[in-house]
Queue: 2 jobs
Job 1
Amino acid sequence: MRSTELLLHPVRMRVVQALLGDRDLTTTQLRELLPDVPVATLYRQVAALVDGGVLQVVNERRPVRGAVERTYRLVPAAATVDPAELRDLSPEQHRRHFLTFVAGLVGDFDRYLADTDRPDGRVDPQQDRIGYRQAVMHLSDDEVDEMLAELGGVLARYRATPPGPGRSRRALSTVLLKG
């Protein structure tokens, strides 16, 4: 299966996103994070990611009922779409994959909005340090490459920060458009 077909599937994309940040998760934990995904679908899509080399089994234990519980970890190098495959996609395929990506963002935002752990039930993006915005710049291709290299360095520094007290898991999603 091509990396675009493997990774740009709506459920598989959400599984990969759930495992970002050096997380090791069982299918039970994935079910808790993705409660709207039917169990059989989740198991099938996790198996496809394992078969595709995107996930690896890092632990197996046999619970009391006899079923093997596996713990999965993302294989970072395998969790990226091959740029050569992207060049070969038709405009309609790009549109479909982009819509899958955007739908994933909408789902993440819906889950944030549905968070009922707030005492008054209200959403406070400023307090929660979440946001959505767009910045428009006039840049040459070389300047875009320079900006992306700088951003990559900053993001690499923060991606290396381990989980700990007072830290929340956060996702920064980017889309860079021309025009």
Note: The radius of gyration is 18 Å.
Job 2
Amino acid sequence: MEIKLIQATAGDVLVLHDVQTKAFQPLLEKYLDYETNPANEPINRLFEKIQYSSFFKIMVEQKCVGGIRVVRKNTSYWISPIFILPEYQGKGIAQQAIQQAEKLFTKFNTWELQTILQEQGNCYLYEKMGYERTDFKQKVNEKMTLIGYKKTKQQ
């Protein structure tokens, strides 16, 4: 399944908010992390992210099936967040989106992200793509712990 990353604009906020909510709702219901889950993010906060960072729609044919945001922090890039509609998960879309993002942003060699320790599929994806666990570990609640991943690309 071929994907395209398209820079999001203010006009995409309704579509991206809907896709983000649908993508993260199952995790919200599973982990009850009401403070941190993007399914609970107010639309105005997403609007700000689109305006002030590199936020892309993940497109399959003409349909927005997800999003990926790349943020520069010091001398590394952070993926925060990446999301795919549930019916499109498990099809290699996130992997393609990350690979394309890594090709778009080349000033720094270090990429970082955080994910849920209990979501083994996510951990497997990032490890398969060359990301390694960092020392970062934050217990959000009794059900959920965030962990960090980092990848340093060769020059």
Note: The chain has a mean pLDDT of 96.
